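Researcher: Structure for this, please.
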Amino acid sequence: MAFQNLRNSYMDIPAVTRIYSTACVATTLAVHLDLVSPLHLYFHPNLIIYKLQLWRIVTTFLFFGSISFSFFFNLIFTYRYCRMLEEGSFRGRSSDFVMMFLFGCLMTTFFGFFVDLLFLGQAFTLMLVYVWSRRNPSLRMNFFGLLNFHAPYLPWVLLGFSMILGNTVLVDLIGISVGHIYYFLEDVFPLQRNGMKILKTPNFLWVFFFQYFKITKTFYKKL
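Model: Predicted structure, token format:
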């Protein structure tokens, strides 16, 4: 019974959030158990371009470091805001959510070619936080019981928190920049005079998720 409840809770997590969060946890566990080395995961433009180690484009977004406070902090933030986006403004639009993922990863990778960063997962998390915060402008938030502010200030509060901890703010700035670019292209520019929707979800993503939810629904009926 306990296992079934756990399985049901896991499957209740929206598809994209579930897959991404699971991949992050699995990657970290694989490193922790010495099944794979972080040296094979980090972002390295030369190895990607000249050695065709293309998997690094993906794994750089999946590893948040060894199991520590920083890992759990980043994972919780990633899961929380990814899920709130998927259940909020992207509810019933998983294909559009994946399109945002692809755009965010592409833009973050682009910036990654010009800076010296090994892992880009934290920047991607900040992008998710930024988009969520701009789509919930009136929501009041509390940060560790110390600060009260409206949601759009959350990315900047996190940036300040990184500075206090002595971390590089470059990662946060990239995430905020990518999030703002997506927000402008998706939520601002289409509403301007002579504006248009630039980011269009490919048809194959619509077909894929239609089939995915159809198969999932059929599977649960058989249980």
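Researcher: Any notable elements?
Model: The mean pLDDT is 86. Residues 5 and 11 are 10 Å apart (CA to CA).
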